[in-house]
Design a protein that fits this description.
501 residues; alpha/beta; Cobalt-precorrin-4 Transmethylase, domain 1; Methyltransferase, Cobalt-precorrin-4 Transmethylase, Domain 2; Rossmann fold; 4 domains; five-stranded parallel sheet; elongated; binds S-adenosyl-L-homocysteine
Length: 501
């Protein structure tokens, strides 16, 4: 039988990009993923779709599974020959009970490996612009747990040492006990003016930072109901924050943006919005399915070289077309001398990535612009055109071309269907809402509307272009902004502009 293995993998503090390459490597190979509260569930996307994914919880006060049971689960899966990825927030050996899990695996004779992660103890301060060490200020730092009640007899932490030793102190857990812990540190001699920063949900779009001193931080935290999970940083380095506060100064920091797209396409927009600091999440409302009539589609693709013009109206159409084309032909020259027209830069980019040049791209990225642009190039009467498009796409373009005498065939490359309502992003939208929802096609707007989700009146709807906006208005969804350039970079630019005001 195959020998199993359990990887204890540090998931990093929250931003999914802070998972290590080795961590991802383990996830990609996992038969079973065991994860808990502090791991970003988005990391599960790296695991194979058919991997077993087990949530074992652990939010303070709401333990889903006892530690012994988690240990037993890891052992039994590993002994059954599985590759197990045990995802733990931050680093597995920094207050994550990773040491206990490793001991249990070792005692049971299971193979295991440790994959260190980016601990919140360092990433938390870093994302608040606080270096834990600095040549001019401190050359040591201490990480301690605030899990323990400092008023109980014989606490295992030496508060006197914590209060009086030099260097930065970083506390994990214990935000609930901040008052008693800071009081104790003061009693034991920590200077009253010692700067303190609390960083909650560090490295995510909903990070919050609160700054004070050891004397007043507990009161400040209570005033704003500052809650776990958070790290607390004690020391002079907190004062360095102002010019170094890079993350919270990003243009979209703190904005919660739901991106409605198909599962396969949401990634690019979400990733760019996050780079700008937004708490962006995918909300797939539509899903791309292959051509409704595959045989007919392949037949049209096979004869593409017999047309004078090939028109692509969307990146999905290009993908479906070339997938079929290269299944049918080995040689790119099989496309012959057909000329290529596209709508929109994203569509053009996909064509070029297949090593074909674009002969025509209208300045405005809307279907209605294709006809006048073509007319400048050629006479449309008797022109043989193959239009590659989605099943539900508007049919004004083929109608207009036919009216002008063109011989138009339509290759229906794909169909868009509403995404099932129970997906992760939709659940999140129901729970937390959003400051903004983005729409990148009329069908995303239509499908979003069809989901009948509750919409807060403060939510702003962003549109990629006039056709999408028109669909939105017809559904009584007010358009807060419309991109000037009707593509993803254009939409991002418009969103940044919107929040600058
Ligand atoms: N192994 C983890 C720590 C687990 S203990 C690590 O290395 O980060 C759980 C504590 O970690 C929380 O109570 C909180 O203090 C801290 N923590 C984890 N993720 C955090 C985050 N994104 N922001 C702030 N604190 C976090």
């Amino acid at each position: 039988m195959l020998e199993g293995i359990c990887y204890l993998v540090g998931a990093g503090p929250g931003d999914p990009l802070l998972l290590t390459l080795k961590g991802r490597h383990c996830l990609e190979r996992a038969d079973v993923v065991v994860y808990d509260y502090l791991c970003n569930p988005e990391l599960l996307k790296w695991a194979p779709v058919d991997a077993e994914k087990l949530y074992v919880g652990k939010k303070a006060g709401a333990h889903t599974m006892r530690q012994e049971d988690i240990d037993a689960l890891l052992i039994s899966k590993t002994q059954a020959g599985k590759t197990v990825a045990r995802l733990k927030g931050g680093d597995p050996f920094v207050f994550g009970r990773g040491g206990e899990e490793a001991e249990a695996l070792a005692a049971a004779g299971c193979r295991f490996e440790i994959v260190p992660g980016v601990s919140s103890a360092i990433a938390g301060p870093a994302y608040a612009g606080i270096p834990v060490t600095h040549r001019k200020h401190t050359s040591m730092f201490t990480i301690f747990t605030g899990h323990e009640d400092p008023t109980k007899p014989d606490p295992s932490l030496d508060y006197k040492v914590l209060a009086t030793s030099p260097g930065t102190k970083v506390m994990l857990m214990g935000i609930e006990r901040l008052r008693s812990i800071t009081a104790r540190l003061r009693e034991e001699g920590m200077p009253a003016e010692t700067p303190v920063a609390l960083v909650r949900w560090a490295s995510t779009g909903y990070q919050k930072t609160l700054v004070g001193t050891v004397t007043n931080i507990a009161e400040k935290a209570e005033e704003v109901s500052f809650e776990a999970p958070a790290v607390a940083v004690f020391g002079e380095v907190v004062n360095l924050r102002e010019p170094l506060n890079w993350f919270e100064s990003l243009p979209l920091f703190g904005k919660r943006i739901a991106v409605t797209r198909t599962q396969s396409q949401a990634g690019e927009l979400v990733a760019s919005l996050r780079e700008l600091g937004a708490d962006a999440y995918e909300m797939p409302t539509i899903r791309i399915e292959p051509a409704p009539d595959k045989r007919e589609f392949y037949e049209l693709v096979a004869y593409a070289h017999t047309y004078e013009w090939l028109i692509f109206t969307s990146p999905n159409g290009v993908d479906a077309f070339f997938k079929a084309f290269y299944e049918l032909y080995k040689d790119a020259r099989s496309l012959g001398g057909v000329r290529i027209a596209v709508i929109g830069p994203a569509t053009a980019e996909r064509v070029r990535s297949n090593r074909f040049e674009i002969d025509l791209i209208p300045e405005k990225h809307i279907a209605g612009e294709i006809v006048p642009a073509l007319q400048k190039e050629t006479t449309i009467d008797n022109l043989k055109v193959l239009l590659v498009r989605g099943e539900k796409a508007r049919d004004e373009l083929p109608k207009e071309l036919s009216r002008l005498g063109a011989i138009v065939d339509e290759a229906l490359a794909y169909r868009t269907l509403p995404e099932s309502a129970d997906s992760l992003g939709i659940a999140r939208y129901r729970r937390e809402g959003a400051d903004m929802v983005t729409f990148t096609s009329a069908s995303t707007a239509e499908n979003f509307h069809a989901l009948e989700l509750p919409t807060d009146k403060n939510v702003s709807f962003a549109s990629i272009g006039p056709i999408t906006s028109k669909a939105m208005r017809s559904l009584e969804m007010p358009v807060a902004l419309e991109a000037k350039s009707h593509d993803i970079p254009g939409l991002i630019q418009a969103i940044v502009g919107f929040y600058k005001k």
